[in-house]
Design goal:
Number of strands: 4
Radius of gyration: 19 Å
Organism: Acinetobacter tianfuensis
Shape: globular
Strand content: 5-15%
Order of helices and strands: HHEEEHEHHH
Protein name: HK97 gp10 family phage protein
Largest sheet: 2 strands, antiparallel
Pfam family, one: HK97-gp10_like
Helix content: 40-55%
InterPro entries: HK97-gp10_tail (IPR010064)
Structural class: mainly alpha
Oligomer: single chain
Length: 172
């Protein structure tokens, strides 16, 4: 599951960014700001997971919620994900998987007991429900209820880091 959103009203700022020469430095600053902003989503997801977690088991979903940087082919795109460790994996783009029609599709793993919260493979049954158990989402609302705060936090950190770099003369 992913949620995409677009910041609008930043046309002048984006033109100024395009004029900058050091794209790698700008992308590093954007990733750092995105990670700080997504910590709000991580905390909201951890609170939601704590409400549904069974204290009688040694597994803890909220301890397995993590932020990971994603990859993008577009140099101007920053991808930051919040998810549960031990989640779904993608089939590799190998000849065998392409031939069998699996390449790019996801498969569920059984998780790992080496994760900080133990083996919490069952989190997706709680999040999305099953035919016998209704969904009790905690990850999706963590983002949807905090989009404005995440956007504001990203803008605050990113603008601050860009302004600091410009003052120091590191970005020209």
């Amino acid at each position: 599951m992913s949620a995409d959103f677009k910041l609008e009203g930043m046309d002048d700022f984006m033109r100024n960014l395009d004029a900058l020469k050091d794209r790698k430095s700008v992308n590093r600053k954007a990733k750092s700001a995105a990670r700080k902003a997504m910590q709000l989503v991580q905390m909201a997801a951890m609170v939601g997971a704590a409400r549904i977690n069974d204290p009688e088991t040694k597994e803890s979903i909220q301890q397995n919620i993590a932020i990971r940087s994603g990859k993008s082919r577009d140099l101007n795109t920053v991808v930051m994900r919040v998810g549960v460790l031990g989640g779904a994996k993608n089939y590799a783009n190998t000849k065998d998987n392409v031939r069998k029609g699996r390449a790019g599709k996801e498969y569920a793993t059984d998780g790992s007991s080496k994760n900080p919260g133990g083996d919490t493979f069952y989190w997706r049954y709680i999040e999305f429900g099953t035919s016998r158990f209704p969904a009790v989402p905690f990850m999706r609302p963590a983002l949807s209820e905090n989009i404005e705060r995440v956007t504001a936090e990203f803008n605050k950190h990113f603008m601050k880091s860009i302004e600091t770099a410009i003052k120091k003369g590191k970005i020209t």
